[in-house]
Each structure stands twice: as C-alpha cells, then as structure tokens.
Specification:
Helix content: 55-70%
Number of strands: 5
Distance between the termini: 54 Å
Number of helices: 8
Order of helices and strands: HHEHEHHEHEHEH
Strand order of the largest sheet: 2-1-3-4-5
Length: 203
C-alpha cells in the first residue's frame, strides 16, 4: 500500500513539473518582444561569425553545462555538416579555473580570461538564472571595456546582468530548473537559425 501511495505521489510531481515547463514555453510563445529578442540575438551572432569573430559562453553549475552544450552546437554541428563556427565555453580549462580560483579569486575567472582572449566584435553569452552571478557580472564589465557584445540568458528579473547586457533573454520564471530548460530550448533555436543563415537550410 505504501509503495502504491509513493508511486501516485511521484506521478503527481512528474505531471506538475511538465505542466510548469509547458506554462513557461507558452508564455514565451505569447511574448512577441521576447521572440524579437531571440531574432536580434541571432542576427548579432551571425554578424559576429561572418566578420571573423568568436562567440564565448559562461555559466555556473547547470548553467555551465548549458554553456558548454551550446558552444558545442556552434563549434561542432547542429543539423548540418559544415565548417566550424568558432565558439567555446570559458570554464572548460579546469587547470585554469582551479588555479585562478585558488590563487586569486573565483569571482574573476571569466573576466580575466575574456580580457586576454576576447576581441572587439566578439560575443559573450552569460547564462545565470538569477542574473547575479558575480563572475559573469565582472566578465560583462570587462566586455564593455573591450567592445565585446554581451548577451544574457536569465530569469524574469535579470538581476545585475540586466544593466550590463546589450541583449537579454528574460525567461518568465523564477524557478531555476524551468529557466534552464527554457535556456536550452531558446539556445537550440538560435543555433538552428544561425547555422541556417550562414550555411543554408537543412535539406
């Protein structure tokens, strides 16, 4: 009997989370301004690649995983077999991350790196559900000094990154898992559109 009750409870959670995910996606579907922002970010990234720039990503925890995922879609492939679109996630060098975090400060891991490798015309996409991740905020401040375009993927509030971002995706939620799910969905759409604009449509 106890196993049956626990099974029913788990099914309730499953349904509730799927409904919450659906609700966030439906809000994005009904938000023309947010869809226009997705299109604008796509155009910005296309321009960056066409003029020889690079797109960088950064995040923490689950958002770091999402950052690495999206960088791989550009540098590897999305739908098409095609040339590389130069992109990388800034946290992937574990020796660098641990050395700077240990010897200097975790807060500067991204700002220090982007100051050395980023160039004017590049794009930095920061993923933070709160918009307040200090290491991303500092990286965005550095980008302003170097004329690197800043793009934020955040939640409904936007946090400190709102004022530092040239372009911003505010997912209409305050729930971290739902925000991250939407970030990947939107990121995939952008990857598809960028690839299509540069290399043509999937046959």
């Amino acid at each position: 009997m106890q196993e049956r009750i626990e099974h029913m409870d788990s099914k309730g959670v499953i349904r509730k989370r799927l409904e919450q995910h659906r609700d966030v996606i439906e809000q994005i579907l009904s938000d023309e301004k947010l869809q226009d922002m997705i299109a604008q970010i796509t155009e910005t990234i296309v321009t960056c690649f066409k003029y020889g720039g690079r797109v960088y990503f950064c995040g923490n925890g689950g958002s770091a995983a999402d950052a690495q995922h999206l960088a791989a879609e550009f540098s590897g492939k999305f739908y098409l077999e095609r040339d590389i679109l130069p992109s990388e996630a800034l946290h992937c060098n574990s020796s660098y991350i641990t050395a700077v975090s240990n010897d200097l400060s975790f807060e500067i891991i991204y700002s220090r790196l982007i100051s050395g490798i980023g160039k004017a015309g590049d794009v930095l996409i920061g993923l933070s559900t709160s918009g307040n991740s200090v290491n991303i905020v500092k990286a965005f401040e550095t980008c302003h000094e170097k004329a690197i375009t800043t793009v934020a993927f955040t939640g409904s509030d936007g946090g400190r990154m709102r004022e530092l971002s040239k372009l911003i995706i505010n997912v209409p939620s305050t729930d971290t898992p739902r925000i991250q799910e939407a970030h990947i969905t939107i990121g995939h759409i952008i990857c598809e559109l960028v690839e299509e604009e540069i290399f043509g449509k999937k046959k």
